[in-house]
Amino acid sequence: MPNFADIWEGIAQAMPDATAAAHGFESHSWREFEDRSARLAAALDDAGVGHDDKVALYLFNGFEYQEAQFAAFKQRAVPCNVNYRYVAAELQYLLENADAKAVFFDVSLADRIEAVRAACPELRLLVQVGGGDLLDGAVHFEDLVASHQPAAPIERSGDDLWFLYTGGTTGNPKAVMWPHAELQKSGAAYYTPLDRGVPQTVEEAVDAACELRDRNRSTRVLAAAPLMHGTSGIVSLQVLSVGGTVATLPSRSFDATELWEVVAHHRLTMLTIVGEAFARPMLAELARARDAGTPHDLSSVFQIMSSGVMWSRESKEAFLEFRQMTLVDTLGSSESPGQGTQRTRGGEEVASTGRFELSETTTVLTDDGHEVVPGSGDVGRLANRGIVPLGYYKDQAKTDETFPTVRGVRYAIPGDYATIEADGTITLLGRGSVCINSGGEKIYPEEVEEALKSHPGVLDCNVVGLADERWGQSVTAVISLVDGTEVSDDDLVAHAREHLAAYKTPKRFFRVPSVMRGPNGKPDYTWARTTAETLAAE
Q1: Is 514 exposed, middle or buried (0-12, 13-18, 19+ CB in 10 A)?
Q2: What is the pLDDT of residue 433?
Q3: pTM
Q4: Domains and CATH numbers, the chain
């Protein structure tokens, strides 16, 4: 199977005037997308960035994110997503771990790049997106585009890689190594209107894209979540590979009014969201506009898809009251997309929250490697043998653990526990680790605990995730203070923010005389969660 760049170049040649990307109310054609990306590819080549070199994308949503990614693909380089919430220490770890040779960064993040660049000697090219003062030693994104001629296509491979950095369940972020060919397999559903499988050649892919366009079945998707998030990142790759359009929102914080206005402006057909954190404000805005007598135009929307966090039955039912469409709740992870789905069409009863139908390649395995029998009540871990990445970059031990070979079959087993009901659907029980999932972001308790314990007034703490209607889980700290000290919640948050991205800082703090630990000195998270839930209920 071909490289993404090969497919996209072919589509740009076949349908140059079709829209490839939109940001807010602006749009770029496939001709512009190809030309600008080819010029950036030439700049990467001039900097010595080529096959298997890592290109970090420390960017907000926008045309630049997709163009820089396309440029990296053209060079057979490896794009790496970087969470724009990362502060200096987190950024430095990722750039060093990736051996990044180039980094594209937003101007508002320049101070963080400046703070870590000396510790990242592999960096050869710093590209700043946005106006304002230019970071010393960096170049402006638009200057690179203007000063280079488009790079000619080179021979590439479907084995070339795309890195998706994910929190996983323990430790520092890890890069899931995805070959282009494997990710293309995960986009099979986009070819459903053609009643054919995933194309095996560039020619087949371009023919499919043209046929979808001619039949007015091209997907125009709103990637509502950040492109650096797995949900939007993977979907955007798939949609572009069928000649579709990927739209993003310009606001740096979620704006539901803007979302619905952009949907109507570009006549978008599909929305990708991350559970309740997106669904609730979207529904609130729909209700507000309706009650004000100025309802939003949803007539182009055929599907809303959510992945990465809980999407409640109640929210789904509310969406269907506004428009009869298809709602797709997908079960998956950065290591294993497409494990299961809950698909609801207008006029159908919505299934209960957290119930999914397994994909053909997914099963539930007990700890001894046996498949769970439907209706038995046995619990196991979700295991997918269909689309499996190479593993984690620079972490063979974790790769062997997460992608084991069981009875001759290699699986992706990220750690989600589930049971299979008698009707064949599964009930998801959650991760078997203490990883917190807040609004689709994975957060490690140990990292937050260490940041809090560096405060001179904090004696000890445990951090857990408590159920939250909007975020899925909210970061919650159970702390004990040094005798005779008083520390406010605001002071604790401010201190944590010196070490952590904002989304990792606790939303609530509960003070206890002492933090309980196990006999081995390790945190007792069961006690901490029970204590936090009890105190929260008081």
Answers
A1: exposed
A2: 62
A3: 0.85
A4: 4-181 (3.40.50.980), 360-431 (2.30.38.10), 436-537 (3.30.300.30)
